[in-house]
Amino acid sequence: MSFSPRHEGHMDMDMPMGGSTGSGSSSSSSSSGHGSMGSMMMAMVFQTETATPLYANSWTPNSAGAYAGTCIFLVVLAVVARLLLAAKTLQEARWLDRDARRRYVAANGKVPLAEKVARDPDAKRMTLSENGVEETVFVVARKSTVARPWRFSVDPVRAVMDTVIVGVGYLLMLAVMTMNVGYFMSVLAGVFIGSLAVGRYSSVPEH
């Protein structure tokens, strides 16, 4: 008869211990969760720590000189990115001129371009006059965009250039995502220097 109260007391003693263990684990998990959230929030603000890793933990500047060298590297990398964009623009212009020269090659049995344009019902005959000299021309509106043919000497080179440009761009983006002020300003300085040097070769048409 005395077993029942003793058993109930044993259970009552065990319950607080289990409850304290559960509350301790929940409090530790909540504290770790708050710590991770706090670290994420801290990573989203600019900071000026010189010992900021770049691309790998082994690339962590441990002195002012190493930090300055890392910033110079980012400046050069941003300049290279602008040079690659300018080089691609110039190369695209060369490829377009080469395709245009191919269009005007005469072939036996083919109607000359002048006669083909003259027979086009949408062609409008106009006269241009400059310094007293008149010249008759035909104006033809392009109806749709003509896709340039795939060429082994052009498209693989274009693919390689695009891949390199995107890769360098992602490296610069990762440097900015460290939220280090020095790294961020170095990327901007490199973009400024590169645009100042080769910005005139931009692919944006001039008006």
TrEMBL record:
Pfam families: Ctr (PF04145). It is a multi-pass membrane protein. Residues 1-36 are annotated as: Disordered. Residues 14-36 have a biased composition (Low complexity). The keyword Transport applies. InterPro entries: Cop_transporter. It is found in: Membrane. One of its GO terms (molecular function) is copper ion transmembrane transporter activity. The keyword Cell cycle does not apply. GO terms for cellular component: plasma membrane. Keywords: Copper, Copper transport, Ion transport, Membrane, Transmembrane, Transmembrane helix, Transport. Belongs to the copper transporter (Ctr) (TC 1.A.56) family. SLC31A subfamily. This is Copper transport protein. It comes from Tolypocladium paradoxum.
